[in-house]
Design goal:
With 188 residues, this protein is mainly beta. The protein is built from one helix and 16 strands. It has three domains: 61 residues, SH3 type barrels; 60 residues, Nucleic acid-binding proteins (OB fold (Dihydrolipoamide Acetyltransferase, E2P), Beta Barrel), CATH 2.40.50; 57 residues, Nucleic acid-binding proteins (OB fold (Dihydrolipoamide Acetyltransferase, E2P)), CATH 2.40.50.140. The strands form four sheets. It has a five-stranded antiparallel β-sheet with strand order 9-8-7-10-11, with no helix packed on it. It is flat.
Length: 188
């Protein structure tokens, strides 16, 4: 069992006997004495990909689904599906690309450190690492004399992810990105 106050982005739990993955959690603390803290949870059904919004108290509990997590490597995109390889058994799994629209923004070919969530032998979701390293392919020229704490400018990574980077960054540089927020963390 998992309590509502333990849910965070990427947590997996069951709602109405279907596995869901948490996309966002907002904690609302009331100003009145004796009132309970509410958690607004946005989750995505791993089977149907529909979104579900829940409001729950911190002590509400949810069942954890019975699925396996396997270490996989992202190999390539083949038409409308993505191909992953199990790093232990070398089995290959095909996952429809449209079910991985959020994850694809952070994945490059031959990427490891991914976790495939298997339910009844079928991949229902991919867990990303906490951070990824991507290359900048499109950004404005660097500004001379820009400091590390200066303003930011828009940039596009090799996967098409649009992020804000410091003004001193240039095309071709490697950057570390937080997969939960999609924000620039540092230069590599």
């Amino acid at each position: 069992m998992i309590a509502a106050n333990e849910l965070k982005s990427g947590s997996v739990f069951e709602v109405h006997n279907a596995p869901h993955i948490v996309e966002n959690v907002v904690k609302q603390t009331p100003s009145a004495r004796g009132a309970t803290t509410l958690y607004k949870v946005r989750a995505r059904n791993l089977l149907t990909k529909s979104k579900t919004d829940l409001s729950c108290r911190g002590d509400d509990t949810f069942q954890e689904p019975d699925f396996q997590t396997r270490s996989v490597q992202y190999l390539y995109q083949n038409g409308g599906s993505c191909v992953f390889m199990d790093l232990e058994s070398y089995d290959q799994y095909e996952v429809p690309s449209d079910t991985l629209e959020n994850e694809l923004r952070f994945m490059v070919e031959d990427m490891e450190d991914l976790g495939a969530m298997l339910l009844d032998g079928r991949v229902v979701g991919i867990r990303l690492p906490v951070t990824v390293v991507l290359e900048l392919v499109e950004c404005d020229p660097a500004i001379k004399g820009a400091s590390a704490t200066a303003r930011t400018k828009p940039a596009v990574t090799q996967t098409g992810l649009e992020i804000q980077v410091p003004e001193y960054m240039e095309n071709g540089e490697q950057v570390k990105i937080d997969t939960e927020t999609g924000r620039f963390l540092s230069r590599v």
